[in-house]
């Protein structure tokens, strides 16, 4: 099957390679041609600009956009809608806000252009293991691209038409929020074990948990490699960014009045990781000192040697009043 492809970043390039490997003809382009040679070496054909798809692809055409969410996606989809013809199919496989996808489905229907929103999971491992594809839109359009979805996913179990327009990106948003929560739970568990003073081998425990445990997962498989390479993570700073889906999930949960404390805690933990000496924490320390005489640490005091300042498990912190709060 012939397909156009916009975007040759880490995921986009691997998706192109996987499609070519499975016998599809891919015509690709991107804002920058810096990875053109890599795409061509993989067997794809490079085209100059979005308008070229109308020439190189036979109608009805299909073009997949795999660019960063936000303005880049908006500009790409609008340009594709302008350059393609009625009946052509446009796919947004990036991490777009489902509310934007809902609007785009309505806009594309008026043109008229077919449109699918596809939540894509698999990251840099998708080339080898296949991608998980969550697809929203019209059933006829989904069926038309079934060979493409199966090639990317590796099997028909790896992709699904989850619902109408915007459903694909909605399900992907929830998927990523669940991912945030799982990662945070693992992180807290491993930190508790790291600070136990028992000399626990975290990599060995990650491997152990992946054999028969109810908490086994691919994330734990990745953790095995992480702890094997750097058992105490001494080569990293503990700053954790977020890509937006966790925020959208919380906004959606609030609007629907759905309690989502795990999502919120995981997202806020990422915010906290970006503050080395938060004003709020200094305020809390000062307030506890004023009402209870609890010890405070002056700004000029050295950081504890282990960087944690933690007491032994179960022991009270030295210098603190027994009137705790």
UniProtKB/TrEMBL annotation:
The keyword Repeat does not apply. Pfam families: 6PGD (PF00393), NAD_binding_2 (PF03446). Residues 302-325 have a biased composition (Low complexity). Residues 295-325 are annotated as: Disordered. InterPro entries: 6-PGluconate_DH-like_C_sf (IPR008927), 6DGDH_YqeC (IPR004849), 6PGD_dom2 (IPR013328), 6PGDH_C (IPR006114), 6PGDH_NADP-bd (IPR006115), NAD(P)-bd_dom_sf (IPR036291), Pgluconate_DH (IPR006183). Gene3D superfamilies: N-(1-d-carboxylethyl)-l-norvaline Dehydrogenase, domain 2, NAD(P)-binding Rossmann-like Domain. Residues 168-308 form the 6-phosphogluconate dehydrogenase C-terminal domain. SMART domains: 6PGD. The keyword Acyltransferase does not apply. GO terms for biological process: D-gluconate metabolic process; pentose-phosphate shunt. Keywords: Gluconate utilization, Oxidoreductase. GO terms for molecular function: NADP binding; phosphogluconate dehydrogenase (decarboxylating) activity. Belongs to the 6-phosphogluconate dehydrogenase family. This is 6-phosphogluconate dehydrogenase, decarboxylating. It comes from Candidatus Ozemobacter sibiricus.
